[in-house]
Amino acid sequence: MAAGEEDQAAPFLRELAGHAKEVMEGRAEPAVPRDAATVMLVRPAGGAGQPAGGGFEVYMLKRQSSMKFAPGAYVFPGGSVDRRDAEADLAWTGPHAAEWGRLLGVPPGAARALVCAAVRETFEESGVLLAGPSPDEVVADTTAEDWEADRHALLDRSQSLAGLLTRRGLMLRSDLLRPWSRWITPELERRRYDTRFFAAALPPGQRTRDVGGEAAGVTWVRPADAIAAGQRREIFLMLPTRITLGELDACGTVDGVLGARRQITPMRPEVTLTSQGLKLHLNGEEQPI
User: Fold this and answer.
1) The CATH number of the domain where 276 resides is what?
2) How many helices and strands in the chain, by DSSP H and E?
3) 18 or 252: which carries more pLDDT confidence?
């Protein structure tokens, strides 16, 4: 994490200010949020096999500086729900869609698509697949060339998650995910998302890898260290990421993360444009941008 990386956020913030002014003056309509999912993948600090009481790390990506949304930001794996994430023809274990719907506050079909998007995006952006051949097993390793070909097929949309799992005789392990939070992008932003956050532990035997694509780099980092780097302006953390890192840090351990009881209520930050520039507010309190 090199010093000065947060400077890459400047063009994004200028573009945000320009669009906010257009919306406020009636020259542009607020965008409709797209459903999205993101996953905080956690492991014991130092990797598998380390003492459980030694803290934990979370997997993060640095977005390419060329990205239109949040260029250069450090984020968790995630992205928009694809229409094929709603395909029902796949094996599934763990809480069923109706239960996920209750937890996430959406109809069962939408909940199913969000969970599938969470699993798909995690595989696309980390190489980790939350699936296995039975309800009690998980894929042990996904680093071989054939797995990499499958990952790229998901990325270019030539294969759906349901198609991948069916062909390999695997079932989606929804029990490996934990619902965490929901964030809705402010109305004055050009690209808006209604994102459900999930938490999951790195499955035994699996390894993450530098996946390229939208990511300029990847890292495992203690939540507190990522927060501190953001405060030193060494990295760019968006508000939902910054707050979520703090929530994770408070859990102390991987087991603490997985056992956290979360109340899923929409978080709706607001952006205002003043003579002093952009201001960000959450629940009536001003937040740093």
Assistant:
1) 3.90.79.10
2) 8, 14
3) 252
Distance of CA 60 to the CA centre of its chain: 9
The model's confidence at residue 2, banded by pLDDT at 50, 70 and 90, is very low
Among the ranges given (81-90, 240-249, 266-275), the one the predictor scored with the smallest mean pLDDT: 266-275
The sign of the CA dihedral 79, 171, 41, 180 is: positive
How many structural domains compose the chain?
Answer: 1
Helix (H, G, I), strand (E, B) or coil at 199: strand
Residue pair 123/160 in contact by the 8 Å Cβ criterion: no
Which H or E run contains 10?
A: helix 10-24
- pTM for the model stands at 0.88
> Measuring CA to CA, how many Å separate 78 from each of 122, 231, 256?
7, 24, 22
Helix (H) or strand (E) holding 63: strand 56-63
d(CA 180, CA 169): 29
Question: pLDDT tens digits, residue range 66-102?
Answer: 666 667 889 999 999 999 999 878 999 999 999 999 9
- The single residue listed with the structure tokens 């797209």 is 34
Distances (CA, A) of 178 to 31, 41, 165, 264: 29, 11, 21, 11
For residue 53, the enclosing domain spans 5-287
Q: Of 219, 223, 120, whose CA–CA distance to 164 is shortest?
A: 120
Question: Could you tell me the CA-to-CA distances from 97 to 28, 120, 160, 191, 263 in Å, in that order?
Answer: 37, 16, 19, 28, 18
Helix (H, G, I), strand (E, B) or coil at 241: helix
Dump pLDDT digits (tens) for 139-198: 998 999 999 999 999 999 999 999 999 999 999 999 999 999 999 988 777 788 999 999
HSE-CB for 208 with a 13 A CA cutoff: 27
**What b/e readout covers 81-94, taking b as 16+ CB neighbours within 10 angstroms?**
bbebbbbeebbbbb
